[in-house]
Every structure is written in structure tokens, then in C-alpha cells.
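Lecture 7 notes: from sequence to structure.

We start with a single chain of 361 residues. Read the sequence below before looking at the structure.
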Amino acid sequence: MIPWRAPRFWFEPFGWQAAFLEPAAFVYGRVAARRMAEAPRRQAAAPVICIGNFTLGGGGKTPTAMALAEAARALGRTPGFLTRGHGGASRLPLLVEPDRHGAALVGDEALLLAERAPTAASPDRAAGALLLRHAGCDLFLMDDGFQSAQLQPDLALLVVDGATGLGNGRTFPAGPLRAPLGVQWPHADALLVIGAGEPGDAVARRAAADGKPVHRARLATVDAAGLRGARCLAFAGIANPGKFHASLEEAGAAVETRRDFPDHHPFTEAEAHAILSDAEAKGLVPVTTAKDHVRLLAGGPQARLLGEAARVLRVALRFEDPAAPETILLAAEAAFRARPPAVQPLVAAPVSALSEAAASA
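Now the structure, written as C-alpha cells:
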């Protein structure tokens, strides 16, 4: 996996860097558009909610998936998570077992999700859906996968960061869009804006004008009282470390040193040792994110030492309208019931073979 961090110019007015990359963006956009338009989307045997982004990077998909799973269980459903397993080496579909599968195999997000509900990590989302169905799940929450167009979602919920919106509105690599917006927009069923900001408001206005439901939410810290007044060394390998720093400061911590790494960064032993030594020398509390923490605990001796010493800042999604999660879930189930006959339905036959492959991984 290539370490990745969004360049600053993606979120600035159109300039020379974006202009220089426009030819490459045109080619990339054509390929992405063809995939979204022509990919043979398959239908799963249970309702599928795709939680995606228009743009590359984070934005709150995983906390959104977790919040919807909690709401689904309150309605008596048995949700399961579908994830590609970003950062993991496995190419087999796996039903994640946190005590057995490390972040190096299935990725950090898969381990976090598996703490909440059955989770299938699989580059082939259709194969992952079969594993979840075999595990007894009656609702699939697909974390990402909107542009891959492997499964037909019954509801595609697109998550937008209120502070950054769609950036400069250009397609990768000239901007943050994963495909031209005009190609993505028709496939989006609803919008979720996380946090405040005019960039997110602009996307919300467009969605409302097109008759797409718009939901709003924020990320809130969980059990962070112990960090109030703490002098911290904040380190993270996530798409937007600025959000992590802001959440720490909102919790009352003093962020005195920052160590930012690319998204899904696998910490080396030297890096872990340097962070821990720096924190000890300055009398600071090392603090990281839940995603980084699971990677540390699955690393080498120095990484595990840092993971054991670090405090974890956990966040949860809070919907502005408490009824929004149920609204989203029921809309997906209604769409599932209204489906036309499947053109390329998922079949149950490969389940045993997939399970055997997973068991041997």
C-alpha cells in the first residue's frame, strides 16, 4: 500500500498545480467513469448500505458505519460490515477475528469494525457479502466501495466533511474527487455532512435541490475526561490529522508536540521508539487514534510498547437528528424490498469454499 496524504492545493482555489495535472485527471476520470457506468454490480441477499465518499481520504465513513450498526441492532437487525481491508495484505475474503487476524493482514479499519459486529474484509465485496450472510447477518454496511461498483447498494450514503467539502472540485490527481462529480452524483441516494463549514453546506444545498435527503452529524470524543489538562504528544497516521488535533484540544488537552504520518501508516520500530523516547524526555502523554492503536499492538516490540503506553482518543458519530439512523436503515430496507429481479444475483454455493479459504488464512 502506498502511503498517502492529501496535498494542500486540493483544498485551495484552482491554481497552477491543479492545472498542470488536469491532463492526468482527465484520463483518470475517464477510467473511473467507465467503471462506475459499466461495472457489473451484483445484488446481495440482504439490504446493502454503502457508506462512501466523493473524495479520497477519510471523512468519517467508519464512525458512520459504526453508528448505523448500533441503530440497526436497536431495531432488532443483525448487521455486518463489509470492508476492503485497506492496509492489509490478505487478498482472500476473511471473516475477521480480532484475536487472530492482525492489522497487517486485514487492515486497521477492519479490526475496529470487528469489535462491533461481524466484519468481512475482502477486496471482492461480493465474496465478503456471502461470508456475512453465512454468519447470519441480515443487513450489510459497506464501508467505502462506492466507486468500485461491485455490489448494488440499496442506499448509497455519501459522507462529506463540512470543513473541506469537495475541495477544488477536480478529479484526482488535480483534486480530491475519486471520479468526476457528474458521474458520481446520480448514484448517490443521500448525503451526510459531518461537521460545520461552508464547503459542506454547498454540497448539502445541491443535494437538497436535487431532492436527495441531507443528514448532519458531528464527531464527538468518548471517555476523554482523563485527557483534560494533559500535556500531549499527538501522533497519528490518518488522512486528516488536523481533526485529531482539534478533537484533543476540544477535550481540554494541550497538544505540545505533533507527529503526523500518512494514512494507514505502518509504524516502524525506529519510529515507535523515537515517539516514546520523545514523550518521556519532554514529560508528555503520547496520544493516538483508535486506528493507529490497533496497528501498534500488531507491530513489533517497540510498537507494542508505544501502543501500551499511549492513550487512545476515541470518537463517535452523533447525528443532529436522533431519528436519522432509523430513517436511513428503513429507507434501505424499503429499497431492498422494491428491487427488480436480480440480473447478476449472488449465489450461495461459494460460501463453504470461501469459509474454508478464510479458515486457512
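The CA atoms of residues 276 and 306 lie 6 Å apart. Keep this in mind for problem set 3.
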